[in-house]
Amino acid sequence: MSPLSNRTVATIGSGVMAEAIIAGLLRGKLVGPQQIVGSEPRADRREELASQYGVRMVASNLDAAVDADVILLSVKPQTLTKVGHELGGHLRPNQLVVSIVAGANCKVLTNLLEHREVVRSMPNTPAQIGRGITVWYATPEVSELQCDQARVLLRALGTDLQVEDERFVEMATAVSGTGPAYVFLVMEALIDAAVHLGFPRHVAHDLVIETLEGSTAFAKATAQHPAVLRNMVTSPGGTSAAAIHELESGRLRTVLSEAVWASYRRTLELGADLEKGLGLNEGASDESGTGRASNGARSTAPAERRIGR
Length: 309
Ligand SMILES: NC(=O)c1ccc[n+]([C@@H]2O[C@H](COP(=O)([O-])OP(=O)(O)OC[C@H]3O[C@@H](n4cnc5c(N)ncnc54)[C@H](OP(=O)(O)O)[C@@H]3O)[C@@H](O)[C@H]2O)c1
Prior knowledge:
Layout: E1 9-12, H1 16-27, E2 36-39, H2 43-53, E3 56-58, H3 61-66, E4 70-73, H4 77-87, E5 96-99, H5 106-113, E6 118-122, E7 132-138, H6 144-155, E8 158-162, H7 167-177, H8 179-197, H9 201-222, H10 226-232, H11 239-249, H12 252-277
Helix pairs in contact: 7-12, 8-9
The protein binds NADP nicotinamide-adenine-dinucleotide phosphate.
Residues 12-18, 39-42, 45, 61, 74-77, 79, 82-83, 100-102, 122-125, 177 line the site of NADP nicotinamide-adenine-dinucleotide phosphate (NAP).
């Protein structure tokens, strides 16, 4: 029996990600359409989801949330405070809130919603085809059953990883959450380079997509370190060696690392901005800031902390 059997799921803000969850839950027969209620301000969007999935759609966030067992918070970060004020003080114990809102930390969510049973998660965009990875953290008040419910909900988006320290969700935002943007940029650059060489664009597109997909599948199937796989295709004095020399000269690794750190700092800033808006971080030190200590040095990532349960 699914942990969501006989439970009601509400999606607050029924956009792209909420739809991916609705579709995944229904596809996996984890819930029936009658167990889902979504809120959405636009009437045409409400009609679209109701007719496509047979779910109940309402305009009021509170109406959607009030009787739900699991409440998915899937609005944009800039809408969170407004929506949170609508729901705050109206949630009952035993209702589980699962947030996918980027940057919204548990301190913000629990204070805004006046509710303790909260899961903070970070999915990524391949979730839209059920191939995402979601990293999630549950507050201590979330029960085992509710963790199971969150897991089932988030697995509608692909793979999941529960972490014991919320900071791993913040770090994951910079790696897997933002990761598809890095990959798409690399994809685009390679396609443009192939066009520059003389390939028609559609051929360049297919060559790059198949190469990325095949390389990922190969790395996964062999479970080899990427450096081992790269060495396998790097002959002495060969074409790969020449290309890799250029990539290293262009500081590719350093640039990628800086990009991940920039995304991480931005994640912390988003959380700090939300805290500030709620008056929660008065007198706070660097903890909520940019990920850099007051002297400008980068703070130490808690990489040694335990991830799994
Ligand atoms: N997309 C991703 O790949 C991804 C990955 C990781 C995390 N996330 C997080 O997931 C959340 C949702 O992202 P998304 O891509 O699904 O965004 P989205 O498609 O824009 O969905 C947000 C939905 O909220 C609705 N909305 C706006 N104001 C509202 C209000 N006052 N009350 C209730 N609903 C309201 C929007 O309606 P209108 O369209 O009418 O404005 C829209 O349908 C974001 O916080 C984002 O950070 C997304």
